[in-house]
Amino acid sequence: MTRRASFPLLLHAALFAMLLLVLALRPPAEGTMLLVPIVAAPGALASAALAADARLVGRGPGRSLVVRGTRDRITARLRLGDALLLAAPSPLCGDDVGERA
Question: Which CATH number goes with the domain that contains 49?
């Protein structure tokens, strides 16, 4: 009986953990975000962000870019599949991301 009960419990725990991860990485409506290239070059992403009136803050992990702007304006400039737009958590992007001029 213990084996039957453990599978649904593990499934619920995995779904809950996935939900927390999605909520943690969901980009804010406005603020600092991480642009992670999928098929587009980082230069093309920088151009798209600047065209959306976003400010380039710096480089993120790998080939990603840290930008500050409005999520809807940035996503309107990106083609589907070019990049992922994520929240820019301080441990990944540095503690002073929002403080740079």
Answer: 3.30.70
